[in-house]
Amino acid sequence: RIDHYLGKETVQNLMALRFANRMFERLWNASEIDHVQITVAETLGVEGRGPYYDKTGALRDMLQNHLMQLLCLVAMEPPARLDADAVRDEKVKVLKSLRPIDGSTMAHMTVRGQYVAGAIGGKAVPGYAQELDGGGKAPPSRTETFVALRAEIDNWRWTGVPFYLRTGKRLAERRSEIVVEFRAVPHLIFPASAGEIGANRLVIRLQPDEGIHLVLTTKTPTPGKLRLQRAALNLSFAEAFATRHPDAYERLVTDVLRGNQTLFMRRDEVEWAWRWVEPIHDAWEAMGDAPKTYPAGSWGPAASTALLARDGRSWREETV
Q: Which residue among 48, 113, 127, 244 has the highest number of C-beta atoms inside a 10 angstrom radius?
C-alpha cells in the first residue's frame, strides 16, 4: 500500500496547488477544463525483471497504482481537513465514480502495445521478446509494455472531461507529468495572422526536472503588427527552493515512523482501483488480440495517437 509516486515532491505539491490557491480551485471543473493527460514514460526496458514483468504487464504494474493515484489527486474533492482518512475518503469517491470499461467499450477506450527493437539515445536496443530470453526464441508474449486509455468520471465536477492515461517502457524520453488543458476562449478577437493562439495549459512535471508550468498566450515584444505567441510561466523546484528534496521512499519511510498514513492507500481504495482495472485486463484476455507493436524510442503505437485524435485532441509530447 506504499506507492512511492505519492512521495514525490511535485505530487505532494499538487495538494497545495489545488487547495491553497483559490484561483485554480475555481477553474477546476468541467466548465473550464477541456481534458487531462497523465503520462508516466520510461526509456528503460524490463531490465532483468522479465519473468516478473511478463506475468504482470504495464496495466497492473504501473497504471493500477501510480497513474490511478495521480488521477485521484487531480480529480478529488477538497477534503474537510488534511488528515489521512479525510484525504483517502475523497480518493475513494473518485474511484467509485469511474465509468467502467469492459468488453463493449474496450476497443475504442484502450490501447495496449509492446515494444520491438529500436533506438534510445542514439543506441540500438532490443525488443521486448529479445529481452525476455536474450534471443527472442520464446513463444510470442501477449504482455503489454504500453497502455493508454480514456477514463471518464461520472460526477458533477468532471462529467464530460476525458482523462487520458498512458504509460510505457522504451518510450522516447523519461517523463512523468500531469497536463491540465483548459477550454479555449469563447470568442477570438484576434486575426489568424496574429500568430499562435491556444488554450491555457497547466503542466505539472513530476520527473525529471520537477516543476509547474502555466502556458499562456502573450504578445511578443516586437514593433509593427500584433504578434501573439504561447509562452510558459515556469516554476522550477531546483531553482526556486535551495534545499535538498527528500527521495520519495525516504519521505514515505519517515511517514511510517511518524504514523502519518495520508499518502498510503487504504484497503478499500486498493480494492476499488482493482475493480476498475481488472475488467480491462479480462476484456483483453477474452479478445485474445496481440498487443500493437511500437519501435523502442517512439511514443508508443499509432493507435495511442488515434485514441485522442478521435476526440480532436493530441498528446503533449513537446518540451515545455
A: 113
